[in-house]
Amino acid sequence: MLIAPDIDPVAIQLGPVKVHWYGLMYLIGFAGGWALGVHRAKRAGSGWHANEVADLLFYVALGVILGGRLGYVLFYNFGHYLRHPLEIAYIWTGGMSFHGGLIGVIVAMWLYARRTRRHWLAVTDFLAPLVPVGLGAGRIGNFINQELWGRVTDVPWGMVFRDAGSLPRHPTQLYEFALEGVALFAILWLYSARPRPTGAISGLFLIGYGVFRFLVEFVRVPDAHIGYVAFGWVTMGQILSVPMVLVGAALMAWAHRMRAQSSPR
């Protein structure tokens, strides 16, 4: 049995100004995504310029923050915010949804593609391998905050979290860091190293994240105000992940079919 490190969630305090670790993880995620994006843009035949990456990530940041917050409101705690609508703007109190953030980024990429006259899927294909960096950083932020822990377990690496009682639990934040961050990044980075049909990289991202999130949800404790939504074991995270996998598989199939049809015979 292990004890989760008790780290002060405030990383830096200058008078009344507090900088939380979770916020720093967002900055690290965006900085890492920018650096990798510049590297991808410099590849021969990428069709991108390095100076376009910062503009792209500005759209991503808006999509993540607005979509993530509204997704949490709609998917996870709609009743509360319906009674207290002003609290929707209180993002400093916590409450962000990945699936909502994904929708926000999709909309942001559509707007970016229109402004730059690019194919929407070409934009999402360029972005997809960069996203796991931010996902991984965010899960480290969850771990530092000792939130989103897993079910009680007797595995040797089970951890005791300060607000979860005295029994060891699955450190699901670290599972998601390893899967959604490290593993998904490696898969997408290697897959995108060669030219792929438009939409295939985006489809693989949807499949990879959806599968990894669905699996981790089996040992992750759902939000207390929602609990299990079906059969005593299905979570909201799993319900939201299934369409991701289906859409991702359909997108990859469509992408390869389009390339096959356009190839000279």
From TrEMBL:
<protein>
    <recommendedName>
        <fullName>Phosphatidylglycerol--prolipoprotein diacylglyceryl transferase</fullName>
        <ecNumber>2.5.1.145</ecNumber>
    </recommendedName>
</protein>
<dbReference type="InterPro" id="IPR001640">
    <property type="entry name" value="Lgt"/>
</dbReference>
<dbReference type="GO" id="GO:0042158">
    <property type="term" value="P:lipoprotein biosynthetic process"/>
</dbReference>
<keyword id="KW-0449">Lipoprotein</keyword>
<feature type="transmembrane region" description="Helical">
    <location>
        <begin position="120"/>
        <end position="140"/>
    </location>
</feature>
<comment type="pathway">
    <text>Protein modification; lipoprotein biosynthesis (diacylglyceryl transfer).</text>
</comment>
<feature type="transmembrane region" description="Helical">
    <location>
        <begin position="56"/>
        <end position="78"/>
    </location>
</feature>
<feature type="transmembrane region" description="Helical">
    <location>
        <begin position="19"/>
        <end position="36"/>
    </location>
</feature>
<comment type="similarity">
    <text>Belongs to the Lgt family.</text>
</comment>
<keyword id="KW-0808">Transferase</keyword>
<feature type="transmembrane region" description="Helical">
    <location>
        <begin position="228"/>
        <end position="255"/>
    </location>
</feature>
<comment type="function">
    <text>Catalyzes the transfer of the diacylglyceryl group from phosphatidylglycerol to the sulfhydryl group of the N-terminal cysteine of a prolipoprotein, the first step in the formation of mature lipoproteins.</text>
</comment>
<feature type="transmembrane region" description="Helical">
    <location>
        <begin position="90"/>
        <end position="113"/>
    </location>
</feature>
<dbReference type="GO" id="GO:0005886">
    <property type="term" value="C:plasma membrane"/>
</dbReference>
<feature type="transmembrane region" description="Helical">
    <location>
        <begin position="198"/>
        <end position="216"/>
    </location>
</feature>
<keyword id="KW-0812">Transmembrane</keyword>
<dbReference type="GO" id="GO:0008961">
    <property type="term" value="F:phosphatidylglycerol-prolipoprotein diacylglyceryl transferase activity"/>
</dbReference>
<keyword id="KW-1133">Transmembrane helix</keyword>
<feature type="binding site">
    <location>
        <position position="139"/>
    </location>
    <ligand>
        <name>a 1,2-diacyl-sn-glycero-3-phospho-(1'-sn-glycerol)</name>
    </ligand>
</feature>
<dbReference type="Pfam" id="PF01790">
    <property type="entry name" value="LGT"/>
</dbReference>
<feature type="transmembrane region" description="Helical">
    <location>
        <begin position="174"/>
        <end position="191"/>
    </location>
</feature>
<keyword id="KW-0472">Membrane</keyword>
<keyword id="KW-1003">Cell membrane</keyword>
